[in-house]
Design a protein that fits this description.
With about 325 residues, this protein is mainly β. Helix content is about 10%, strand content about 45%.
């Protein structure tokens, strides 16, 4: 059974994964999201800082007579901090955009704050996630040297579900066209912890063609068994979404590297190989990967207000929010 994740960790990840603040010149503001507290030195390198803490009184509310069913009601504090910088738009302007972005995220994700969606939007070589292609008569392991990473231009084909596809063509007899997706997830052996994960959903959008028939097969890497498992297949000759859902033994599919960062590996291949005359071609339009942790299940806003500090130079532009979160627990008495 997964462990309950610290509510501050859940809210930090929710804000970090969904934060998109666009400056007036259409550049993306560099916003740092972390646990408390405000760091003036750190802010020198960022356009703004958002901090999260559990600094308000919280409670456990019984929901039945024997108190086995209860609701945790958590009062969280979210603060945004900015200062004016030479060559940047006014910090009050950025603060206004950041305020609206925090309001948007909490309202849009109010019933799924513990769910994080990953994809390749905006990524390229050196990004958070990696993607590779190969041709092979067998399913290559993630560490194989036969994989070739996508180019910057090829990565752009994975950004959206828009019918602009990356394709891998193989003309060698009995070889399949393969892709490997290396997804870096917001978990680790420290905090947040891999044991907090309770569900993983991996989706591939695309299709495959080959002389033996259309279709794509996807699998997820079990690093404990050192094997590709949980195969799911499609049979279409046009885009279809194929999904693997994992709800047990999840740490077997989260491979930690030496620095404590977790990765999930997804394989996609044409269901049938080339015959040496006609090609096997794998098309990928989009990939989406959803991770759900045990813990917060709902969030909503309480009060919010500006709390600027003009006694320091440069002025510290500060807005504070109260975010109410809750989770439900069933704990039998012993």
């Amino acid at each position: 059974m997964p462990e309950v994740e610290d509510s501050v960790t859940t809210l930090v990840r929710l804000l970090r994964a969904n934060m998109r603040v666009v400056n007036d010149d259409n550049s993306i503001a560099n916003i740092h999201v972390s646990r408390e507290w405000y760091d003036r030195e750190l802010l020198k390198n960022y356009d703004g800082q958002v901090t999260v803490g559990l600094r308000q009184p919280s409670q456990v509310k019984p929901l039945n007579l024997n108190q086995s069913l209860s609701q945790r009601i958590l009062s969280l504090k979210v603060d945004c901090w900015l200062v004016d910088k030479t060559g940047k738009q006014p910090a009050t302007r950025t603060r206004s955009k950041l305020r609206e972005e925090i309001l948007r995220i909490i309202r849009q994700k109010r019933v799924k704050p513990n769910e994080t969606t990953y994809d390749y939007y905006g990524l390229g070589i050196g990004g958070q996630h990696d993607a590779y292609h190969a041709g092979s008569p067998s399913e290559l392991v993630p560490s194989s040297v036969s994989w070739t990473e996508l180019t910057e231009v090829e990565y752009q084909n994975l950004w959206y579900s828009d019918d602009t596809r990356f394709s891998k063509t193989v003309n060698v007899n009995l070889q399949y066209a393969l892709m490997l997706f290396k997804v870096k997830i917001e978990t680790s052996k420290y905090d947040p912890h891999e044991n907090n994960v309770k569900k993983i959903v991996l989706s591939f959008e695309g299709y495959g063609t080959a002389p033996g028939g259309n279709g794509v097969t996807i699998k997820v890497w079990n690093h404990v068994a050192a094997a590709w498992q949980n195969a799911q297949t499609g049979s279409g000759g046009a885009d279809e979404t194929i999904t693997i859902t994992l709800t047990s033994n999840l740490t077997d599919y989260i491979q930690m590297d030496s620095s404590g960062v977790g990765y999930i590996y997804l394989l996609a291949r044409t269901t049938n190989p080339s015959n040496g005359t006609d090609a096997a071609v794998l098309y990928c339009d989009y990939g989406k990967y959803v991770l759900t942790v045990e813990g917060l299940t709902h969030v909503k806003f309480g009060n919010y207000n500006d709390a600027d500090d003009v006694s320091v130079k440069p002025f510290l532009w500060h807005t504070e929010f109260q975010v109410i979160g809750w989770m439900f627990e069933n704990v039998p008495a012993t």
